[in-house]
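hey m, so remember when u said the tokens were messed up on ur end? i reran from scratch. heres the input so u can diff it against urs
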Amino acid sequence: MDDAKGLRSAGLRVTAARLAILQVVREGNHLHAERVAAGVRGRVGHVSTQAVYDSLHALTRAGLLRHIEPAGSPARYEVRVGDNHHHLVCRSCGAVTDVDCTVGEAPCLAPSDAQGYAVDEAEVVFWGVCPKCRAEDASPERAHAGASPPA
């Protein structure tokens, strides 16, 4: 389904800014709102940061975007919605990567005591160091310089 049809079927007005937001998020990698806003401005000209935030929230509520918020990181957005996937987050550079759930259907985990809740989703974030940062840490230049990875 194209973006305009997706917006209409979600009951949202089709605007140049909303179309640009969907394109920027699709082309990016778990972008935070400021990066989305910069990308949108590069496509359609001036759009207020508040308008971008409002649209991101509307698109998320409509199920066209997914909002994730890894600890210590600003909220990030992606177009991969409606499936049961999780995320890998690099402790060094903050990169976020999708990873499929091995169980397959939501929720892939169940609490030991649901306390009466009807659990329909489990959000899992795996933390580690990405291959790029691991390679940089192992590089001879870094070893000679005695540099440590960024905090």
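this time it looks ok to me. Residues 21 and 77 are 10 Å apart (CA to CA). if urs says something different then somethings off w ur setup not the seq
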